[in-house]
From TrEMBL:
<dbReference type="GO" id="GO:0005829">
    <property type="term" value="C:cytosol"/>
</dbReference>
<feature type="active site" description="Nucleophile">
    <location>
        <position position="78"/>
    </location>
</feature>
<comment type="pathway">
    <text>Cofactor biosynthesis; pyridoxal 5'-phosphate biosynthesis.</text>
</comment>
<feature type="active site" description="Charge relay system">
    <location>
        <position position="172"/>
    </location>
</feature>
<dbReference type="Pfam" id="PF01174">
    <property type="entry name" value="SNO"/>
</dbReference>
<dbReference type="InterPro" id="IPR002161">
    <property type="entry name" value="PdxT/SNO"/>
</dbReference>
<feature type="active site" description="Charge relay system">
    <location>
        <position position="170"/>
    </location>
</feature>
<keyword id="KW-0315">Glutamine amidotransferase</keyword>
<feature type="binding site">
    <location>
        <position position="105"/>
    </location>
    <ligand>
        <name>L-glutamine</name>
    </ligand>
</feature>
<feature type="binding site">
    <location>
        <begin position="46"/>
        <end position="48"/>
    </location>
    <ligand>
        <name>L-glutamine</name>
    </ligand>
</feature>
<dbReference type="InterPro" id="IPR021196">
    <property type="entry name" value="PdxT/SNO_CS"/>
</dbReference>
<keyword id="KW-0663">Pyridoxal phosphate</keyword>
<keyword id="KW-0378">Hydrolase</keyword>
<dbReference type="GO" id="GO:0004359">
    <property type="term" value="F:glutaminase activity"/>
</dbReference>
<comment type="subunit">
    <text>In the presence of PdxS, forms a dodecamer of heterodimers. Only shows activity in the heterodimer.</text>
</comment>
<keyword id="KW-0456">Lyase</keyword>
<dbReference type="GO" id="GO:0042823">
    <property type="term" value="P:pyridoxal phosphate biosynthetic process"/>
</dbReference>
Length: 193
């Protein structure tokens, strides 16, 4: 399995390390040519506005958006969730806008409001998973095509729509590999289509 991690800005190395632990070929994607031959791509946490600008500057934006719309599995963590959302509250800038969700940026406050939770997410694992939230967004509304995977205090923090997965939190910042394993499973299904 060959999975890319968008490496323009943000938490790249941690995702790469988790993928390697799960015997994937992990590719840092910095140029549009590096999108070829991938079974999936992870859009990491970081600063969504910066990543959005760099996607355009590098020429990756249109190619990546088209690949996602054509079925390339994509997982957006934190800033990656914002990049994939069709709507962002209090922001008229849209990025890839491929997933039928509305998100609220920095919904949990600033860096000092970061927190750790443990939740059971039935679709992903049988045991509780540690969830790390850092300046995290959450989903405020979903289309009926979107499957809600997890909520914290009634706020949607993980969802899936076909080939698109988003999490408010950072599984790559824990030792738990279940979310990466789950995404690899999505990639495997789409590779067979």
């Amino acid at each position: 399995m060959r999975i890319g991690v968008l490496a323009l800005q943000g938490g790249v190395a941690e995702h790469i390390n988790h993928l390697i632990k799960l015997n994937c070929e992990a590719v840092e994607v910095r140029k549009k040519e590096e999108l070829e031959g991938l079974n999936g791509i992870i859009l990491p946490g970081g600063e969504s506005t910066t990543i959005g600008k760099l996607l355009r500057k590098t020429g990756i934006f249109d190619i990546l958006r088209n690949k996602i719309l054509e079925g390339l599995p994509v997982w957006g963590t934190c800033a990656g969730m914002i990049l994939l959302a069709k709507d962002i509250e209090n922001d008229n800038v849209k990025h890839l806008a491929t997933m039928d969700i509305t998100v609220r940026r920095n919904a949990y406050g600033s860096q000092i409001d970061s927190f750790l939770a443990e939740e059971s997410i039935e679709a992903v694992a049988n045991e509780k998973i540690p969830l790390v939230f850092i300046r995290a967004p959450f989903i405020t509304s979903v289309d009926d095509k979107v499957e809600i995977l997890a909520k914290i205090e009634e706020k949607v923090v993980a969802a899936r729509q076909g080939n698109m997965l988003v999490t408010s939190f950072h599984p790559e910042l824990t030792d738990n590999l279940e979310f990466h394993r789950y995404f690899i499973g999505i990639c495997g299904k789409y590779a067979k289509l």
